[in-house]
Design goal:
elongated, 9 strands, Helicase, Ruva Protein, domain 3, two-stranded antiparallel sheet, alpha/beta, single chain, 2 domains, 36% helix, Rossmann fold
Amino acid sequence: MDLTDLNIIKSFCKKYGVRPSKEFGQNFLIDREVLETMVEAADLKRGDVILEIGPGFGVLTAELVKRVSRVIAVEADRKMANALREIMADFQNVEIIQDDVLKFSIFNFQFSNNFQNSKFKIQNYSYKIVANLPYQITSAVFRKFLSEEPRPNEITVMVQKEVAERICAKPGEMSLLSLSVQFYGQPEIVAIVPRRVFWPEPEVDSAILKISNIRGIFAKNEKEISPEKFFRLAKIGFSARRKQLQNNLAGGLRLSNKAVQDILIKIGLDPKVRAQDLAIEDWIRLINNF
């Protein structure tokens, strides 16, 4: 059964009494080539454990279960979760959870008793996130799963194109979002996905975004810097985007502009620099000098 077939998707909607919901960001992928590109980008291994967010009728789930050890599919929509349990009934390596993923605890998750090897607990294993993310929770998902333990090894997701571009921004166009993701891992845009490959068609194009080497930068600096200190300073630095960094830091930290200027010069930055101009390494040097 080809779950990218629009006729099959529409028949499922009728059978299970489902209408694509804007609230849940339900736009179904109906392009086999895009699906294969995403699966290839995820670099799946037989022993992988995958967390899928917003699986819908299982177009991606069906590919994951054939390639990996275990799939945890978290679906907020009760009707959709019940439908997916029926659609995936022949597979023994998928657990379908009806829950808000932003409230879902991956650390405490344990497979149900009717699942093979029910003693399996996620905190004893590494895992990856592979998902077609609902647009409205994209930033919150990154914030939750990059900052909480256990962090995924990799994240491969379909997101709004503009969001993917913001996450992958370079110094000069940085934001708190790009900083928040790049602090923990290395993002890259794998492919741009046109809106026409979804039903219903969304108002914007999408992108396949992969975040690898998660905790790479953080692990390298964790003895010197905590995420709490990093993001406290970053939020102050971005508090007024049009202002120079020195003004934001001086006001937020209650220091003189002269004191902040001296530190900026010390670490090789122009005193007139703005927050969006700094790379991750610049922020780390800043924190180590305050």
